[in-house]
Amino acid sequence: MGNSIPLSFPDITSREINAVTAVMRSGRLSMGPRLEAFEQAVAERTGRRHGVGVSSGTAGLHLALLALGVGPGDEVITPAFSFVASANCILYAGAKPVFVDCDPRTLNMRVSDVEAAITERTKAIIGVEIFGNPAGMRELAALAARHEIPLVEDACEGIGSVHAGEPVGRFGRVAVFGFYPNKQITTGEGGMLVTDDDRLAAVCRSLRNQGRPPQLEAPDGEEDIALGVTMDHRRVGYNYRLSELHAAIGETQMTRLDEIIEMRQRVAENYTRRLMGHSDLILPTIEPETRMSWFVYVVRLTDRFSAFDRDQIIEGLRRHEVGSATYFPVIPLLPFYAGTFGHEPGSFPMAESVSHRTIALPFFTRLTDREIDLVSQTLELMITRADFARR
Ligand SMILES: *Cc1c(COP(=O)(O)O)cnc(C)c1O
What we know:
By secondary structure, the chain is an alpha/beta fold. The protein has helices at residues 14-26, 33-45, 57-67, 85-92, 111-117, 137-146, 198-207, 223-229, 244-255, 257-275, 307-319, 335-341, 349-357, 369-389, and strands at residues 50-54, 75-79, 96-100, 122-128, 151-154, 162-163, 166-167, 174-178, 191-195, 281-282, 290-291, 297-301, 358-361.
């Protein structure tokens, strides 16, 4: 790493490396026992009947919507402030995204705003635990149930978080996890759907594997069929499979999830302790009944700073070899959304205000106290400079 501090860094030990090596030696590189074990581990952890491993979180969201029958003419409610995949999946399905602004405190959608966005065309609601925070998810699930609209939980940022005893992944009819290297746990690339719905799980298993019948995926002792020799295609499917190598990393990471969450908790607490009381910064707010699994540590500048000031601060951090990023753009204002759906600046005031002022700081398990102090000191210096420059 040299002197530079990266924005994120995966926590990979010799256990993950050995697990991958064992798969390499086994000859079974896809659709095998490691995938089943990984699926079971994630399903168990989230208290769900089924886990369906896929090639990415984005692929999982796509399949979730298809399995729910979302298509042209349907509307799907989704946050304006999220990672772009929580809206793109709606476009993949040919449906119309209906964007909802965020609560400036939790950064998740406000349940009352979601309710106001429901029409007779609403076919699904995508709820996201932004930065891992499950605030409001219970209320969102209750709202969805009241209106008999399925809730798709985009849990890609929240594995391991618990709200009032309920683990993230158990709020939606179906939930989707992502395992990109910056997430709490990683498979390199990968994702996982979890659900209690037998039919939904079976359709997703088929769709990830070129529309093959799901029960033929990996029957005991019939490896030729499991390896994809069957040419029975029941529907237009995709190749969204997760290889045994990826699954082996994920299975091992799952056994280490609690230790990883704990290390990340320590880093988050240190940042909070270090930056608390800085009058120009808004730190993450977590409700007392929430046990966080921290995805990122994102601070926010107060309203007197502009997006330009924020970008200058990020530039300054990077010049000092401190990894830093803006988090996220407002999805409906991205040109390819605004052009299609006609959203204008000012339509999502909270998301826009937050989006202009967020700064993601380096965040990973092995970040030392010294590095946290250095990051904080550099951040404070850059804020002072931005403040000075604008006078
Ligand atoms: C990471 C992420 C995804 C997608 O994950 P990939 O595995 O990168 O496709 C989807 N939604 C949210 C909110 C995410 O943070």
